Amino acid sequence: MTLDPFTIIMLAVLAVLIFFMFRNSRKRQAEAQKLQSSVVPGAKVMTNSGVFGIILSIDEDENQVLLETTPGTVLTVHRQTVARVVEPVAVDDAEVEAAPALDAEPEFGERVEETHVVDAPADDAPDLKKKSDD
């Protein structure tokens, strides 16, 4: 049995695809394990649906998490709906000083958001409402 070059190339491509599939699978498993280890009571998290809250308690048997979204509002969600742990973002003092003031004039060529105000209709403007004939 002789192997032609096309068969050898196809087998090599198949081997590379299988290698990357196993590699990505292990990567996802490691990320999931890291997430589950960081999901502890007191952690600020975000769910898959975008709800932010603080974990109050975790029920391992039922796979449920008590999540406080606002003071006094507690949600019970499945443990797998916790998408990520939210880390607080540290702001440098240099970034705060470099931020432009809201009332400052814009630099030449700098785009600013403009708000358009819709004028109220004037008294002498024609009325566009349909009048019914009685």
UniProtKB/TrEMBL annotation:
Belongs to the YajC family. Keywords: Cell membrane, Membrane, Protein transport, Translocation, Transmembrane, Transmembrane helix, Transport. SMART domains: YajC. InterPro entries: Preprotein_translocase_YajC. Residues 108-117 have a biased composition (Basic and acidic residues). PANTHER family: SEC TRANSLOCON ACCESSORY COMPLEX SUBUNIT YAJC (PTHR33909). The keyword Signal does not apply. The keyword Transport applies. It is a single-pass membrane protein. The chain crosses the membrane at residues 6-22. This is Preprotein translocase subunit YajC. Residues 102-134 are annotated as: Disordered. It comes from the Bacteria. It is found in: Cell membrane.
